[in-house]
Amino acid sequence: MSQTFKIRKGYDIKLVGEASSNDLGKYSPLTYAVSPLDFPGITPKLAVKAGTKVLAGDTLLFDKDRPEVKICAPVSGEVAEIKRGAKRKILAVLLLADSEVSYANHCAFDLNRGDREAAAGHFSNTGVGAFITTRPYGVAASMNEQPRDIFVNGVQSGPLNGDLATQLAGKGEAVQAAINALTLMTTGKVYLSHDADVPAVTELQVEGATHISFSGKHPKGLVGTQIAKTAPINKGDVVWTLNAVDLPIIGRAFLTGEYAPEYKVAITGSKAMNTGYATMLQGASLNGFISANMNAENTRIISGDVLTGSQQAIDGFLSFGKAQLTAIPEGNQTEFFGWVLPGFGKFSTNRAFWGWLFPNRKYDLDTNMHGEERAFVVSGEYEKFIPMDIFPQQLLRSILIRDIEKMEQLGIYEVVPEDFALAEVACTSKLPLQKIVRDGLNDLRKEMM
Amino acid sequence: MKFVQNIFDKTRPLVEKDGKRNILYPLHNALETMAFVPDHTTHSGAHVRDAIDLKRTMVTVIFAMVPALLFGMWNIGRLHFAAIGEEAALLDSFLFGALKMLPLITVTYAAGLGVEIFFSWKRNHPVNEGFLVSGLLIPMIMPVDIPLWMVAISTIFAVLIGKEVFGGTGMNLLNPALTARAFAFFAYPTWMSGDQVWINTKGGEVVDGYSGATALGDLATTVGQGMGNPATDAVMTQFGTGGHYSFMNAFLGLIPGSIGETSALLILLGGLFLVFKGVGSWKIMLSFFIGGFVMAGIFNLFAVNEFMGLNPLHQLMLGGFIFGMVFMATDPVSAAQTETGKYIYGFLAGFFGIMIRVFNPAYPEGIMLAILFMNVMAPLIDYYVVEANIKRRTKRVAHA
What is the pTM of this model? Predict the structure, then answer.
């Protein structure tokens, strides 16, 4: 029986627009995009140029400093354009998809051979290595590193996150193959987490992993919380993390050699006219899908959930590794004396409003900041949302003054930006906590390299 | 509300960067964001945000202060009319007090916000809400007859030296309101202590047997007289049932003192509201109370004079103890910021407050000095709490 941890600190943001059980079918647009911006901490180098014909699983980009970190094409087709920004920074590689996907021949991998080096090569070459994030720093993992442990996150507890059982249905064999492949990569354990508050997911009852369960509030579904409760990261440790929803893609790459980053994407949010699950490939151009399924007027389209997802324009793309799309209203309107009125219907984690009297109310939240940015004033606020043995405000301050030694002492190795997302929502001073943490991690990494 | 928005829209070009009245930009911005929560949307990190902001937090504190403030106004009038031997209706007393209080509040806000707005313009940042609370706290802890210019200078000193030199709201080491009080106390002692300043007696002859002293002022006269000395009887009967400073009178606030600090009952009500709203730290309030009670209890056990021998609970109801506990010690910026640190900080502030008050009767405002002292010590407390976390982490590495 697996060990269960109860997460008491945290908050479940309840929103309207949950994914219904509707199957919205398969969505295959003409264009796809692969953006290096989805991978913090890499310096992208192009492996292709405009006009190159590629197969699904061919390398498009790799990291300049760690060439084994590769980002591959989700579909076969032609490189239509390399989108660049200021100083020729690569923003995205646009692909024009073939009507029928053909796969690069990476061959099936014999998992019984048990060769770490070969497995590392397979992870890297097929592109599935990119699903793995490494801590410290929260950057794409290099397959040449030996992680202490690997944590696979099977808890989806963020706002409007999809149902993992639906998303993994029928993919049990690939999930098992992925776990087998991961066990080759570490001499430590492969932890697989489960949500103790929802029915067990059959596909995740696999062998070879150390099963751990979490109940209680979000952030039980953040792998950072799970690591902190199970085996905290110390200075010098390297731990890999990935999401259970990515396991079938990894498994397929090992079973057949094909890179097919296909998700059952949860379509959520109050501005989604049709909620449910749509099958699409990572990087899919969302244009057609949005116009068919969402009310796009004055809407924020988010690839992922409202805590950690990335904003997408109407003609945006499904970001890497995200199996959720959220559409919520933009909050670009002023509110007369909003700070002093009782505000009965307002969402707040704070008792200064009244929402705590109605714990089960669901909110239709927009993107308004509800105030201006201020200095740190209120203390003890972030601690309520970060169930780790760290002092969040002190850590943030050490980052702001760029005190590397203090950051290390205060546990920056244990966190990535998403761990501060809930605190960022609740912050009275409206400070950009996730950005501060990201900047801190980048500085630290620069210092260490 | 369109016409209000129109006024702001129309005047904005005047105060913007190249406008003629650029110095007024912070004021314009402050008023506009007060009238309308801005239409800013999230652009990095989480896409949705809590409805709470600093304005909401501060206005919650102000709501908590209102009962004590209204009571203070009434008490000014009540004491005034009693002193000159006139009968007065509740409303008359209240109006008398309100007319005394409003100029104090106005001057404090004008002086403090003036400094804030100047620094906002200089530093190019919006006006912070911190002074909304400080500006109301300062008049509440002043004696009724203090000249307005003294209040203005104290306020300016507090905002300038107490806050802005450190970088503004959120960066200050000391509680700004208490800094103003301490400045006034040391700069204008004759207006801030003694038995002439607490009750307004203008416009009439004082009645026989009138005393303008505070409870603590009277208690101070018992020091050095030993226990059970008949010379102190006259004073001590005032603290017994039915006396001027009886426990009930002190608890309800029917005694002279700084304007807003007398009614323990209504201040505690405000404190409960703050805790209920999650704005004030119950950890600080509780430990502050326990700290004061422990010290007063120790004094009571080893009493060598009547001041020390006073019932500990009665001791806590006098002077600024309860006010300091609810509204001063809990200022999140100048208090300890770690949860463990808050217990230590609160306990010591209450403990030292009673100690200073009793050991040095010249400083009946021991609470003020103790909180300011603990404001300075708070970073040290936090340092050790955080250090313990760092040690724990280092140990984990060593074990791994």
Answer: 0.92
